């Protein structure tokens, strides 16, 4: 069975804000997602500091470039010892294979590599008009997921509503990393298609990515524990 976990999206603007938040956790070491904002503001030192504190890290930089550049950049991320990183599947198969090569360390280990299929901000209309992609959005998402699997990637970022379909097409061992998580009694914010941690567990999501329901909660540690309880059942 795949390892399952709750990943906190640490969408903070500075190292100081992020550390203030992580300092709240005295007993557990949550899996942390670092996105572009924090990484571009603070650089690799933020990754080293959070690793030093004992957290696992999903570095969400969504690489997309020519295969050689992605391969060399992935080597840098691998040396930073992140646990999970990602790229755009639209960079195509050669880029994804090159990414795996770059990530793989001399001892054969590597961080998990996850593909973004279509961004959830891209509607079918935008796909048709801006990208000249005429196929239905779900078909494109599943095709990109299959390409990612064929290139040797470990899974995809997707809506929790797509996780079951991804598993049926790519197999249960292929990871689904799902943002868009909200408590049943919580604010949706700008997320449209959302699911509770308990429902994400039911449909077989492997990792849930949770930001504001934890980071903006009055008691973030209690909110994190509630997520873990609902999603992991412990
Ligand atoms: O605060 P919230 O729970 O909405 O945060 C979700 C996190 O997941 C954010 O970091 C957001 O950028 C990320 N994400 C998302 N939808 C995607 C891909 C990533 O919400 N399709």
Task: Describe the model.
The protein is α/β, with parallel strands linked by helices and 234 residues long. The chain is built from eleven helices and eight strands. The protein has an eight-stranded parallel barrel, surrounded by six helices. α9 (197-202) links the parallel β7 (175-178) and β8 (207-210). The protein is globular. Cytidine-5'-monophosphate binds next to β8 and α10. Residues 9, 11, 35, 119-120, 157, 179-180, 189, 191, 209-213 line the site of cytidine-5'-monophosphate (C5P).
Question: Topology, pairings included?
Answer:
Blueprint: E1 5-9, H1 15-22, E2 31-35, H2 36-42, H3 44-52, E3 57-63, H4 67-79, E4 84-88, H5 93-103, E5 112-116, H6 124-131, H7 137-150, E6 155-157, H8 163-170, E7 175-178, H9 197-202, E8 207-210, H10 212-215, H11 220-232
Parallel strand pairs: 1-2, 1-8, 2-3, 3-4, 4-5, 5-6, 6-7, 7-8
Helix pairs in contact: 4-5, 7-8
The protein binds cytidine-5'-monophosphate (C5P).
Cytidine-5'-monophosphate binds near residues 11, 179, 210 and 211.
Short description:
With 234 residues, the chain is an alpha/beta fold.
Strand content: 15-25%
Largest sheet: 8 strands, parallel, barrel
- In the CATH hierarchy, the architecture is Alpha-Beta Barrel
Find the structural class using helix and strand composition.
Answer: alpha/beta
Number of strands: 8
Distance between the termini: 17 Å
Give the strand line-up of the largest sheet.
Answer: 1-2-3-4-5-6-7-8
Q: How many helical stretches?
A: 11
Oligomer: single chain
Please compute the radius of gyration using only Cα atoms: 17 Å
Q: Could you tell me which ligands this complex binds, including any ions or cofactors?
A: cytidine-5'-monophosphate
Query: What letter string, H or E per element, gives the SSE order?
Result: EHEHHEHEHEHHEHEHEHH
Basic shape:
globular
The name CATH uses for the topology is TIM Barrel
State mean pLDDT (0 to 100 scale).
96
User: Which superfamily, in CATH terms, is the homologous superfamily?
Assistant: Aldolase class I
Helix content: 40-55%
- Taking pLDDT < 50 over at least 5 consecutive residues as the criterion, the unreliable ranges are none
**Can you tell me the number of structural domains?**
1
CATH class assignment: Alpha Beta
